[in-house]
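Hi V.,

Quick status before I head out on leave. The structure for the redesign project is tokenized and pasted below; the design run finished overnight.
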């Protein structure tokens, strides 16, 4: 019997695109929560649904561990969890049903539960943990299992059912942790590391693990949902990060690391110090991370290379300044080319996240994005369509257009949830054509950590195939137009001006 059984709802095999990619990472946020509970004297177990079938495995874990409390604690560092996919919501609800049938108390934390608190409570969850929740979970566990624990009404960051069917009761929000070094390292011993290693090496020939240096993002792009950390940003000390990198290499024999931060290295001095500590402690491991183009200066790129960085993913979004300003991105188009060049000069791959379909985007704006890609020649792309999530200005702008379907089923869905300039069919064709274009100059075979994801069939697209894809895009541009597309709102110019 254990005090707390922790789990999460993301199952890779319910997500078609992620099955093809086969890049499973342990649930880092769940493991942080487990580590804090264990340091405080509670016995814990984990059911890791990333690779294990939850429909069969979770009931078996309940019977094996006989927990007093089940915590469905999502990995809030996993962008797939933050997408609030309906297939994973169904998994979470089935877990609630199974845990309640067993007789355990159930708490839930994550973006989807924060956005749909009442629905999760009505499905049977006893309590929702709001926002950053490691300390909230600890206090809730103490309230259940220790005489000295607080009364539930005095615990910050909770939501629970109101009296007589009323709205959920919410306690005051918990202040975010400022000193992240106070947390123990994630309880990675709870997962089947060999299963992850085997999946990676079978699919790609190397093994990658995840870690984080920070929490949150202070930028305010108006489409980006932040139900956990808001607009805050707090970072660990550079030395603690370097020491964890070395531990992962020595203890788990990793070949590669993925920094799962929303935004890595906002402060150039922090990046320089990380590089110094990596060199001092002999902690170098090749890694990739996410950043912004305006943060990649020449000196920063050089420090990233010293620290072991081999790949940077930048949220570029669009090649149209008009669209970037409408998104309140705070980025200039020319900064993308500058960042790309700085990374190239330091031997670091530059990859772009692009977003099509934002309200007001026209074919001319799309052409500008295609032109930017062709001129700067990124090494890889991640392409999506604008996806409205609660808590954003973008969502508020289009919410009246949302139908019964308000979330994607899985990460390959790419359905337009509102009336963009074109229908979903057009954007899917554009996705395929642009991926094939980049694949033509960025063949993965020459790079050790390459992950060929451009073609669902896993077969490179020929020159003729690329031509045919662009011809299809041009045809659909004519036939997939929405006559009543959502217009660009009248916005004040952003702080970087109007282009």
């Amino acid at each position: 019997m254990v005090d707390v059984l922790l789990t999460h709802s993301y199952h890779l095999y319910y997500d078609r695109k992620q099955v093809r990619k086969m890049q499973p990472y342990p649930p880092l946020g769940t493991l942080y929560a487990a580590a804090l509970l264990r340091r405080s004297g509670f016995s814990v177990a984990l059911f890791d649904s990333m690779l294990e079938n939850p429909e069969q495995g979770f009931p078996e874990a309940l019977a094996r561990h006989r927990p007093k409390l089940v915590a469905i604690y999502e990995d809030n560092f996993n962008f797939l969890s933050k997408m609030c996919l309906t297939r994973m919501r169904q998994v979470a609800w089935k877990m609630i049903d199974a845990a309640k049938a067993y007789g355990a108390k159930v708490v839930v934390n994550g973006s989807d539960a924060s956005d749909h608190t009442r629905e999760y409570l009505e499905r049977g969850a006893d309590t929702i943990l709001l926002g950053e929740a490691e300390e909230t979970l600890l206090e809730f566990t103490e309230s259940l299992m220790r005489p000295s624990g607080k009364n539930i009404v005095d615990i910050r960051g909770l939501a629970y059912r109101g009296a007589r069917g009323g709205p959920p009761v919410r306690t005051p929000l918990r202040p975010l942790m400022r000193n992240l070094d106070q947390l123990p390292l994630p309880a990675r011993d709870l997962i089947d590391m060999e299963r992850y290693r085997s999946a990676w090496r079978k699919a790609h020939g190397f093994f990658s693990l995840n870690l984080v240096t920070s929490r949150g993002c202070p930028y305010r792009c108006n489409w980006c949902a932040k139900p956990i950390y808001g607009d805050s940003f707090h970072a660990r000390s550079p030395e603690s990060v370097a020491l964890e990198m070395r531990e992962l290499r020595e203890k788990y024999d990793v070949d590669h690391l993925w920094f799962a931060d929303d935004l890595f290295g906002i402060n150039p001095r922090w990046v320089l110090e990380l590089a110094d500590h990596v060199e001092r402690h002999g902690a170098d491991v090749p890694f990739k991370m996410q950043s912004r183009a305006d943060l990649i200066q020449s000196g920063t790129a050089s420090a990233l290379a010293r620290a072991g960085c081999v790949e940077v993913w930048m949220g570029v979004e669009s090649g149209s300044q008009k669209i970037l300003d409408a998104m309140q991105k705070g980025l200039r188009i020319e900064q993308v080319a500058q960042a790309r060049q700085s990374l190239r000069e330091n031997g670091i791959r530059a990859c772009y996240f692009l977003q099509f379909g934002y309200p007001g985007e026209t074919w001319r704006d799309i052409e500008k994005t295609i032109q930017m890609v062709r001129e700067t020649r990124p090494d890889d792309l991640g392409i999506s369509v604008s996806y409205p999530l609660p808590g954003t200005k973008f969502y508020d702008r289009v919410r009246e257009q949302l139908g019964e379907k308000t979330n994607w089923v899985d990460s390959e869905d790419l359905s337009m949830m509102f009336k963009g300039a074109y229908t979903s069919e057009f954007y899917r064709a554009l996705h395929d054509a642009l991926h094939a274009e980049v694949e033509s100059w960025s063949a993965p075979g020459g790079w050790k950590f390459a992950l060929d994801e451009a073609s669902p069939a896993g077969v490179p697209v020929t020159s003729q195939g690329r031509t045919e894809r662009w011809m299809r895009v041009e045809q659909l541009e004519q036939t997939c137009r929405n006559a009543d597309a959502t217009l660009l709102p009248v916005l004040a110019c952003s702080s970087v001006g109007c282009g």
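Above is the designed sequence. The chain is about 40% helix and 15% strand.

G. will cover questions while I'm gone.

Best,
W.
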